[in-house]
Design a protein that fits this description.
The strands form 4 sheets. The chain has a 4-stranded mixed sheet. A 4-stranded antiparallel sheet has the order 3-2-5-6. The chain is built from 8 helices and 12 strands. Helix 5 packs across helix 6. Helix content is about 45%, strand content about 25%. By secondary structure, the protein is of the alpha+beta class.
Length: about 300
């Protein structure tokens, strides 16, 4: 009987060790008993409260289970401050500190990685802010001193970009790198984005934004410098069908000009464009592609602008 009891106890202990769950414990600077703390998901500009608790003695805690690592936000509004910190909700012990000048979330693998990146970014921003404040307050700075500080800011901006790019490069196989990528991919070159995107595991490709980015990158590949042109066929004002391939490869450079009758800057540029064509028409062909939806407005603009 004793052996059966010991065996049952062992099974319970083993189950407890392997039972997936998370526990979040945290503090809020300046928080008062009863202040609400929330776990939220944010989509676009909309926040959805997933769980909430109250501060007691400046501390709070959450418990639960999580099937996969997901981005969430922990927030609290005190009498003096409103806090909101992104973090990765995953099973394990997560420690949160909401405070002025640098909140932190640590304890689990994804949060440790992300906090390391955030700490570097926070320090770079702090240094930049200090320089900006000094330049604003100190009216005695010479032109040479201002140039020096501006150069330092430029260097810090490069450091900021480097930290983000390294954070992506080293973590594209996990939610941290993917989260940073979705926020900052537009700051990368096409080559950098293609290299990073290839590292994303297939299991994450159901993310709607990643699907959208994939389509964007494919379009960029087709229209980047030195890529073969994409042929298309449209109708001239006289109703004739004409393809881009009818003009390309005939011994002239071909300039595509996308315009519309309602586009002010487009119309303002036409006189200059006509001069360029007149000067180089033996070597240059211009194909104007109108974005107009109203045929009458399109033809009227062609006539009034004197486009041939």
């Amino acid at each position: 009987m004793k052996k059966v009891f010991l065996f049952a106890s062992l099974l319970v202990a083993l189950a407890a060790c392997t039972d997936p769950s998370y526990k979040i414990t945290g503090t809020v600077e300046g928080g008062a008993d009863g202040d609400k703390v929330y776990i939220e998901s944010i989509t676009g500009m909309n926040a959805t409260v997933l769980d909430s608790t109250v501060l007691s003695g400046g501390k709070f805690s959450f418990k639960g289970r999580q099937d996969s690592t997901v981005l969430r936000y922990v927030s609290c509004t005190t009498k003096e401050e409103a806090f909101s910190a992104p973090f990765f909700l995953e099973n394990g012990k997560i420690k949160v500190s909401l405070r002025k000048g640098g909140d932190s979330v640590t304890g689990t693998p994804a949060n440790e990685i992300y906090q390391g990146i955030r700490s570097q970014i926070t320090e770079v921003l702090r240094q930049m802010n200090d320089i900006y404040e000094e330049m604003e307050k100190d009216s005695t700075l010479t032109a040479e001193q201002k140039d020096s500080k501006t150069a330092t800011i430029d260097s810090l901006e490069k450091r900021y970009s480097h930290v983000l790019k390294e954070g992506m490069r080293e973590n594209m196989d996990n939610p941290v790198g993917i989260y940073i990528f979705k926020l900052w991919y537009f700051d990368n070159s096409l080559e950098e984005n293609l290299e990073l995107f290839d590292k994303i595991p297939e299991k994450y490709m159901t993310d709607p934004l990643l699907v959208k980015i994939k389509g964007f990158l494919e379009r960029q590949k087709r229209t980047t410098v030195n890529a073969k042109y994409i042929d298309f066929t449209m109708t001239t004002p006289k109703g004739k069908k004409i393809s881009l391939s009818d003009k390309v490869g005939k011994g002239k450079y071909v300039l595509l000009d996308f315009w519309a009758s309602w586009c002010g800057p487009c119309r303002q540029s036409m006189p200059e464009l006509k001069k360029v064509y007149a000067q180089y028409k033996d070597r240059l062909e211009i194909v104007g592609v109108s974005l107009d939806h109203k045929e009458e407005a399109w033809k009227k603009a062609i006539s009034s602008l004197g486009l041939n």
